[in-house]
Amino acid sequence: MTIEAVIAEVLRQIRPTEEERTFVKRLMGELKELAVETVEELGLDVKPHFVGSLAKDTYLAGDHDVDLFLAFPLETPLQELREKGLELGKVIARKLDSYEIAYAEHPYVRASYKGVSVDIVPCYDVNSWRDVRTAVDRSILHTRWVNENIKGKNDEVRLLKRFLKGINAYGSEIYVRGFSGYLAEILVIKYGSFLDVLKKADFMLRQKIIDPKNWLRREPEIAMRTVKREVELDRPLIVLDPVDPRRNVAANLSWERYGVFYFNAIKFLKEPSTKFFFPEKSRAGNYLDELRRKGTHLVTLIFGKQDLVDDLLLPQLERSARGFEKALEREGFRVFGWDYGYSGDKAFIMLEVDRAERPSVRIHPGPEFFTERGRDFYRKNERVWLRGKRLYAEKSVKENILDVISELLEKNQVSLGKNLREAVKDADFLVDYVPGDLEGEAYLFLSRKKEGLKG
């Protein structure tokens, strides 16, 4: 297929139909009317705003999540905004189908209405970046900026979003670290089209700084402070937020996710295919065959996932996996990779290691023999010898990796996610075996197909 034919076919699938548009418009109208009525009932000075992809008309077909923001006057104390905002959200949500309380910078309400998820979020009624008090306040400014600048490129944004979803590089959540929807919108507005963004994959990386609002000229001191901070943090891109020079829109974008975008952009431009947008599910293989091919071993920890939402659970699982990597490498095991996630009510951490056993002794270097510490070292160890003026001894250690892990956990020598510490200590440890529901995950991890670029 030609690149034009691929784009036409993808657009046919991702562009909302007229029926969908009518549904969305009616839905938002009903929610706004309900919000206004409730605000008046409670005698509050609050303005409802829709933000996000529905409000910008950059949503994909079938994706109708609503973001309803309740904007309080700037003079409202933060604690009052939180309390009254949550209460207002709950009163609105009780008139919908169902709801629950969710948590970000402050509590908000996540409701359901006509099969659509509706986030009801309190914020400040800001008109400028100088008014921003909480992290969510900018959303109103983001929506306004995109609508003023998109100029009919809505479908180009849809293409970029679907491409990023297809290559597993979409979402700015800390456990994804990909491109946010707002970043995709900025890039299309800046460069003109979906294809132009792909063609600029190398240029953007080399240019490093993208400044759509010319903040470096308009607010040089603040903008340069942002740039210097983000350079020191080694971000792949620095995209100065068009509505706030203090913020890098690409702050959560990792080098890995940008690399995935980089190589897939090159591949798509060379060999266009709808598979980039709608990838085929990876064929399941045998994880044991992968272990035999590589000569490595798989250690899996399985434990209760606790009552944590993904935003809390997944970062803590990642931290715990990194903690095991560092702790095991200190003990002489090489860790080739790690994976984490959950299945049902069980969380897991997988570690690919070079061996399951190690020598039962470790050579322990000591101090110089003629010091007080040297004499103490000599007294405390059974087998001691000299190399030059330094003492050495043999130290008995646990041989099996499961015994090593148990000892590390017992001595609190693994850095773990704070809500997972007790659960991990009670984990089931498995070597070169996983339960049936994790066999596919183990294969994708060991074959590198889960995060792979090639092969």
TrEMBL record:
UniProt-annotated binding residues for ATP: 53, 56, 142, 161, 170
Domain CCA-adding enzyme C-terminal per the UniProt entry, residue ranges: 294-426
Keywords linked to the UniProt accession: ATP-binding, Magnesium, Metal-binding, Nucleotide-binding, Nucleotidyltransferase, RNA repair, RNA-binding, Transferase, tRNA processing
Domain (tRNA nucleotidyltransferase substrate binding) ranges: 155-278
Domain Polymerase nucleotidyl transferase intervals: 36-142
EC number(s) given by UniProt: 2.7.7.72
Gene Ontology process terms (BP): RNA repair; tRNA 3'-terminal CCA addition
Pfam families: CAA_C, NTP_transf_2, tRNA_NucTransf2
Alphabetized GO MF terms: ATP binding; CCA tRNA nucleotidyltransferase activity; CCACCA tRNA nucleotidyltransferase activity; magnesium ion binding; tRNA binding
Entries under InterPro entries matching the protein: CAA_C, CCA-adding_arc, CCA_tRNA_nucleotrans_2, NT_2-5OAS_ClassI-CCAase, NT_sf, NuclTrfase_I-like_C, Polymerase_NTP_transf_dom, tRNA_NucTransf2
Record-linked CDD domains: NT_2-5OAS_ClassI-CCAase (cd05400)
Enzyme class, first EC level, given as a word: transferase
Residues at which CTP binds: 53, 56, 142, 161, 170
Cofactor: Mg(2+)
Role, per record: Catalyzes the addition and repair of the essential 3'-terminal CCA sequence in tRNAs without using a nucleic acid template. Adds these three nucleotides in the order of C, C, and A to the tRNA nucleotide-73, using CTP and ATP as substrates and producing inorganic pyrophosphate. tRNA 3'-terminal CCA addition is required both for tRNA processing and repair. Also involved in tRNA surveillance by mediating tandem CCA addition to generate a CCACCA at the 3' terminus of unstable tRNAs. While stable tRNAs receive only 3'-terminal CCA, unstable tRNAs are marked with CCACCA and rapidly degraded.
Note: A single active site specifically recognizes both ATP and CTP and is responsible for their addition.
Family as reported in the entry's similarity comment: Belongs to the tRNA nucleotidyltransferase/poly(A) polymerase family. Archaeal CCA-adding enzyme subfamily.
Assembly description: Homodimer.
Record-given protein name: CCA-adding enzyme
Lineage: Archaea, Methanobacteriati, Methanobacteriota, Thermococci, Thermococcales
